[in-house]
Amino acid sequence: MLFKAGAEMNTIVKLLIMVALFANTAHSGPLAYAICVGGCTGAFIACVAAAGGVAAVASIATTVAYETCMAACVSAGLLPTP
Predict the structure, then answer these.
(1) pLDDT tens by residue, 15-33
(2) DSSP 8-state code for residue 82
(3) Which end of the chain has the smaller Cβ count within 10 Å, N or C?
(4) Secondary element (H or E) of residue 40
(5) Mean pLDDT, to the nearest integer, of 11-17?
(6) How many helices (H) and strands (E) in the chain?
(7) pTM across the whole model
(8) DSSP state of 56
(9) End-to-end Cα spacing for the chain
(10) Which residues of 66-81 are buried (b: 16+ CB within 10 A; e: fewer)?
(11) Is the distance from CB of 67 to CB of 27 less than 8 angstroms?
(12) Which residues form the signal peptide (predicted)?
């Protein structure tokens, strides 16, 4: 009975070692993209709120800055982040 429990434990240890070895190859590109988009949107909302709360009133510079920020987020989403 002790030998069987040891074999099961050995299998669990091997599985945990494999997970630990492959854990550093995970990429969080989509998570980085989501964080970046959230930041861009938050800045855009703050700018629109400063302009009176109406998106149509927001200046062209605000819209251009928002689109530039969103374009920069694409690289955060595509590049792997270990």
Answers:
(1) 667 666 665 555 567 788 8
(2) -
(3) N
(4) helix 29-50
(5) 71
(6) 3, 0
(7) 0.57
(8) T
(9) 42
(10) beebeeebeebbeeee
(11) no
(12) 1-28
